[in-house]
Amino acid sequence: MRLYQKIVIGILGILAAVVIGFTIYGMRAFDDINDVIDNISQAANRKTKKRDVAVSIEDRDPFSILLLGIDTGALGRTDQGRSDSMMVVTVNPEKKESTIVSLDRDILADMLDGVTFDKLNHAYAYGGVELAMDAVEKLLDIPIDHYVTINMQGMRDLIDAVGGIEVNNKIDFTLEKVHVPAGKITLDGKTGLAYARMRYDDPEGDIGRQRRQREVVTKIVQKVLSLDGVSNYQNILKAVEKNSKTDLTWNDMLDIATNYYPAFTTINQHQLEGNGQMVNGVYYQILGITELLNAQNILKEQLELPTSKTLEIDSQFQYSYNGYIGNQFYDDSVDGVDHTSVADPEDEPYYETSENIEIEETTDFAY
What we know:
Oligomer: single chain
CATH class: Alpha Beta
Shape: globular
CATH architecture: 3-Layer(aba) Sandwich
Distance between the termini: 39 Å
CATH topology: Aminopeptidase
Largest sheet: 6 strands, mixed
Number of strands: 18
Strand content: 15-25%
Number of helices: 9
């Protein structure tokens, strides 16, 4: 397989994998690929509020993409689902590096309806990919330019399509009658899905699970790049077609392969996590001001946007009734300096006063 074909596969494998890849293999199968692109293409009915001019992949602009792993499609789940795995990727060809920031699913986040704060992964359930993109954009204070989703069945199918992946499993566990032994093992789709989903047997909980999900992403991409023939491409195409959606076009993908390859020589990974707290009887991750500000600035630097010295908080939310600054964050500063600033009320006209804000009580959809 030619180098540029592998670049297409590798880049799409990284971008599309929230928990594994969006992979296109084999330029000989151009008609098949076009059919797949037609079937997975789904424009997002929204525009970023963080850019005056849309990003141009053709012109090699640094861009961002939200990767969503949806907790449906397997195990009999056919509903809308929630974005159980969320990653933001920034790609900068001039800096020759990309950055992946994993977002904890339980982060307390603004649902942008003027009254509701809920777990970040619930945004997808409430308003589909559009609200998920808007909620993450609001949280991280960066433009979210594109998205890719893949569901649980897609993860399972893709692992099988590349012939399995090898991992060094640290925890012997059984999840829903699927046993995954400790040690160096080869995972098929069934055990690989369990490996990426398990969290209750992991002392690190969801953080440990997200680390394993990133490992699965990497292993899938490595397997795809190592393929020298086209024997697997049909299975990969089927896995992608049945289980993925994206607003990236085929031309976007070819431009990424042609113009952005240097950005994938270095991939930096970060985890955005907060302080686990019970709020109104529901578990949330409450983000620290400094932690979030650092993550925002890392992504802004990659997108070549101005960084911030303070975390902007809506004026209505600056006084907390639940013990957290802005009802959403806590002060994790070590220098005793206030790292928040209050936004102009006219910039956020749809919110009422803080006394009217509710925190949605929900039952955690955990597995």
